[in-house]
C-alpha cells in the first residue's frame, strides 16, 4: 500500500548484505560501567544548551545490558549484516595503554551472539567518542592522536580480529570536521576553520595508520573508511554556479575520496585553504602514501544532496526531513554510487548508513506506523538497485538505524530506528518499516 513506488519487482543479488547500523555512544549507555573512561561526548552533552533537552548518552537505550534482546531483534528481522561501533574509552579509558579487559569482553559477547545468530558483523573503530584524555592533549588537532588511534586499532585487531571479517576505521571524518570544528554543533564544539582542516588530515592519517596496523598483524579481514558523501548540484546553469558546486564538492567529497583513492588532496581545495593553512603546514612527506594505502572496501553513507548557488551558498530544493540538513532525493544515491565507480574505479562498496527521522508515536494498538520511512528506504533501495544494474559493485546496505537512539545534538527527539524504543521503559517495538524490511530481506527485494 505504498503510493507511487518504483515499478517492481526489484531483485537484489542472493548474497546481498541486508543490514542495519548503530554506534556505541548512541545506544550503549552504561557510561560508568566496567571501567569505561570518559569521551568527548560525555563532556559535550553535559554543557548546558549543547543537546536538545540536555539529553546525554549516559543511559541511551541501555544496549550494554540489553544486547541479547537486541540480537534477537536482529535475528527476527533476518538481518545478514550488523554494523556497530566499538567505544574507544571502554577499551582504553584514557586513550592509551593496556586494554580494559571488561570492555573487550562486552564486544566478545556481542560478536559471539552475532555469530550464533548467523549475522555478519561489521565493526567501526571510531564513531566520534574520542577519549576525553586525548582531547585534553589536543584531540584531532594533534598529530599524535592519529598514532594513538593506530595503537588502539592494533590492540582491538589482536583481541577481536578473529571474530570480525570487516573493519571500518573512522566514521564520517567530514562530520567531525564540520560539526566538531566548523559549526561546533558536535563535540568538541569548536568553531575554528583553520583547525578543522588540520583535523581532516589527522583523521585521514589515522585511517591510513590503522590500515597499516591491520596489514602488519597478518589478518585477512577487510578494512576501509566510512565516508558520508553529498552529491553537490549547481542551483542554475551559470558557469558561476558550476564552479561553486565544484569547489563545494571538493570540500564535501573529493577531500576524502581523492586522498584515499588518488593519493592527493584536491588542488582546488588546497588552493582555497592557502599554503599557510594549518592543514597545508601539517602535511608531511609520506602522509599521502599512508592515507592512500589500498583498502578492501569503501563504506558510503548517504542522506542528502546539496544544492549550491552561484555565490557559493546553498539552497533547499527538495523536501526536507525532520533533520533540517536533510533533503529527500533518492536519485542522489544513484548519482553518488555511479560517480564513485566511474571516477575511482570498481572498489567494493557498502552503504553503511541511509535513513530518515520521522515523528513516530506508539499507537493504542501497540503499533508504530512509519510509512514515510518505508517510502524513503524503498526509493533509496531502488536507486541502489539501478546502480548495481549499471555495474556498481555494491555489496550491502545498512539502514540507519536499527533502533531509535541518542541523535547527538538532537537528543532523543529525533527517531531514526526501524525499531521504536519507549525511553521510559526501554521497551522495543517493531515499527511498520521493520516488518516491511523483514519481508524485503526474506524476498531478496520488493
Ligand atoms: C550520521 N549531514 O551523521 C552519523 O554517522 C550517525 O551517527 C547519525 O546518527 C546519523 O548520520 C543521522 O544523523 C550525519 O549533515 C550527520 O549531512 C550529519 C550529516 C549526515 C550524517
Structure description:
It catalyses: Hydrolysis of terminal, non-reducing beta-D-glucosyl residues with release of beta-D-glucose. One of its GO terms (molecular function) is beta-glucosidase activity. The protein has helices at 24-27, 40-45, 63-77, 88-91, 101-116, 132-136, 143-160, 173-181, 193-216, 239-261, 267-273, 278-282, 287-291, 331-344, 371-389, 432-443, and strands at residues 17-21, 81-85, 120-126, 166-171, 222-228, 232-234, 298-301, 306-308, 314-315, 349-353, 394-400, 419-422, 427-430. It is α/β, with parallel strands linked by helices and 446 residues long. A hairpin with a 4-residue loop joins β12 and β13 (427-430). α3 packs parallel to α5. The radius of gyration is 21 Å and the shape is globular. The relative contact order is 0.14. The protein binds 4-nitrophenyl beta-D-glucopyranoside (PNW). The site of 4-nitrophenyl beta-D-glucopyranoside has 13 residues, from loops. The site of 4-nitrophenyl beta-D-glucopyranoside (PNW) has 13 residues, from loops.
Radius of gyration: 21 Å
Count up the helices. Answer: 16
3D shape: globular
Tell me how many strands there are.
13
| Structure classification | alpha/beta
Distance between the termini: 12 Å
- Small-molecule components bound: 4-nitrophenyl beta-D-glucopyranoside
Written as H for each helix and E for each strand, in order along the chain, the element string is EHHHEHHEHHEHHEEHHHHEEEHEHEEEH
Biggest sheet strand line-up: 1-2-3-4-5-7-10-11
Name the poorly predicted regions.
none
What kind of sheet is the major sheet? 8 strands, parallel, barrel
The mean pLDDT is: 97
Percent of residues in β-strands: 5-15%
Helix % is 40-55%
Protein name: Beta-glucosidase
Family: Belongs to the glycosyl hydrolase 1 family.
EC number: 3.2.1.21
Catalytic activity: Hydrolysis of terminal, non-reducing beta-D-glucosyl residues with release of beta-D-glucose
